[in-house]
């Protein structure tokens, strides 16, 4: 698993340029443009299971689904940040992308460190240090496991039938 580390106030235009908002809708169309202005190597080199570390206010800016859809489609396991913009946070939950707020882990991480996540138990191991974060609510984990809010809702409705 590779760690991609970015700074504070990474906005949705940096995650997915606005000029593609109305021309790219599918994961295949979105992927080549993920982080293209911030980190041109990302789209070609990201692998399933990779984790993004970031500073404060990750995902600020305009409301846009493409970054979340893109990260999920390329297999980003989670984004660990000091904090998230509210609208990005909600979009991630809706798509089943795990977001973790753990400022201590972000500040501690150095290039080359090994990172292990235990999302269910609320722990991040950075190098030799272990950091705790509040365990995600069971509903959020269920949405992730279902593949997003729509599949989760469909499953719940089926169970009621």
Write the layout of secondary structure elements.
Blueprint: E1 3-5, H1 12-15, H2 27-30, H3 42-45, E2 51-54, H4 66-73, E3 78-81, H5 86-95, E4 98-101, H6 103-108, E5 115-118, E6 123-126, E7 129-132, H7 138-146, H8 149-160
Parallel strand pairs: 1-2, 2-3, 3-4
Antiparallel strand pairs: 5-6, 6-7
Helix pairs in contact: 7-8
Describe the structure.
- The protein has helices at 12-15, 27-30, 42-45, 66-73, 86-95, 103-108, 138-146, 149-160, and strands spanning 3-5, 51-54, 78-81, 98-101, 115-118, 123-126, 129-132.
- It is of the alpha/beta class and 161 residues long.
- A four-stranded parallel beta sheet has the order 1-2-3-4. A three-stranded antiparallel beta sheet has the order 5-6-7.
- A hairpin with a 4-residue loop joins strand 5 (115-118) and strand 6 (123-126).
CATH topology: Aconitase, domain 4
For the largest sheet, list the strands in their spatial order. 1-2-3-4
Measured between the Cα atoms of the first and last residue, the distance is 41 Å
What is the N-to-C order of secondary-structure elements (H for helix, E for strand)? EHHHEHEHEHEEEHH
Count of spatially separate domains: 1
CATH architecture: Alpha-Beta Barrel
How many helices in DSSP terms?
Answer: 8
Can you tell me the residue ranges where pLDDT is under 50 for at least 5 consecutive residues? Answer: none
Compact description:
It is built from eight helices and seven strands; from the N terminus they run E-H-H-H-E-H-E-H-E-H-E-E-E-H-H.
């Amino acid at each position: 698993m590779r760690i991609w580390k970015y700074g504070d106030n990474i906005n949705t235009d940096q995650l997915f340029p606005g000029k593609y908002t109305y021309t790219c809708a599918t994961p295949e169309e979105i992927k080549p443009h993920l982080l293209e202005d911030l980190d041109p190597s990302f789209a070609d080199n990201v692998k399933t299971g990779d984790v993004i570390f970031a500073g404060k206010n990750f995902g600020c800016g305009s409301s846009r689904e493409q970054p979340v859809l893109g990260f999920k489609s390329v297999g980003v396991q989670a984004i660990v940040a000091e904090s998230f913009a509210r609208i990005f946070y909600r979009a991630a939950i809706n798509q089943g992308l795990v977001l973790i707020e753990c400022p201590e882990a972000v500040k501690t991480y150095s290039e080359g460190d090994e990172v292990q996540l235990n999302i269910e138990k609320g722990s991040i191991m950075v190098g030799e240090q272990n950091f705790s974060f509040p365990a995600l609510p069971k509903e959020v984990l269920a949405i992730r496991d279902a593949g997003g809010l729509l599949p989760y809702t469909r499953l719940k409705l089926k169970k009621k039938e």
